[in-house]
Amino acid sequence: PAPQPGANPAVLTLDAAQAAPATAFRGATALDSYRALNCLTSAIYYEAGNEPEEGQRAVAQVVLNRVRSPLWPHSVCAVVYQGSERTDLRCQFTFSCDGSMTRGSDRQSWARARRIAQEALSGKVYAPVGLATFYHTLAVRPSWAPSLRPVAIIGAHIFYRMPGFQGAPAAFRVAYSGREYQSGPAPRPWMPAPVIASPVYDWAKADAPAILPVPSVTRPPEDEPALPESTIRPEYRNSGRPRI
C-alpha cells in the first residue's frame, strides 16, 4: 500500500492489526527491574542501534509482546537471551550468540536505547507494530516468513504476527512473572578439545630394527712398571715387626 499523506516515512503499515494492551512490566524486586531494563536496552541497542527511534520502539514492543504470549518465556531477559547458549547462530535474537556484544557500545546511542526501554517497560505501547512477535531485516528472506502475517515495515526491518489465535489479542494475556533470573547470555556448554589418537605401529609388519654390534676396544699390552728400589736404610728395615 502507498503511504498516506502526512504519514511517518519510517513506517509502512501492511496490516491494520490491533495494538498490544498497555502493560507496565514491574520487577518483583529492584534487582529484577534493573535486569529487565538492561536486557531490553541490549536488545534495542544491538538489534536496532542504527535505526530511527520508531525502529527501536518496534523492537522493544516485539520483546514485550513475546513476554505476554504463552509461546515464549515470561520474563524480559529470558525472551531476549533465549537460545543464546547455541553456537550455530540460531538464537532468537542474533546479537546474543554471534559475538556482537563483545564490541564496545556508543554512550549516546546506549542512553537513547535505555530511555526507550524504560518507556516501554513503563507501559508505553508502540502501536504500529501491533502484536508482532517476529521481524527480520529487509536484506534477508527467512524460510519462516511466508507462514506469518506481515504487519509493517519500520526502518530496515519488516515485522510479522502469527496467524490465527496466536496472533490475536486474546492470546496475549499471560502475566509478566516479575522475576529476572539472568542478566546476560546463557553460558555455553563446555566442549573438551578433541583427542587426536596416535598412529598404531604394527610391529609385526615392520622391519626389525638393525642391532649394531658393539665394537670391542682392545688396548695394547702395557708392561707393568718395576717397583723402585727401597730407599730405607738397612738399620730401619726391620722396624715395626713384633718382637718374639
TrEMBL record:
Domain of life from the UniProt record: Bacteria
Residue ranges of domain Cell wall hydrolase SleB in the record: 50-160
Residue span of region Disordered: 214-244
Any one GO molecular function term: hydrolase activity
Entry protein name: Cell wall hydrolase SleB domain-containing protein
Species of provenance: Sphingobium quisquiliarum P25
Record lineage: Bacteria, Pseudomonadati, Pseudomonadota, Alphaproteobacteria, Sphingomonadales
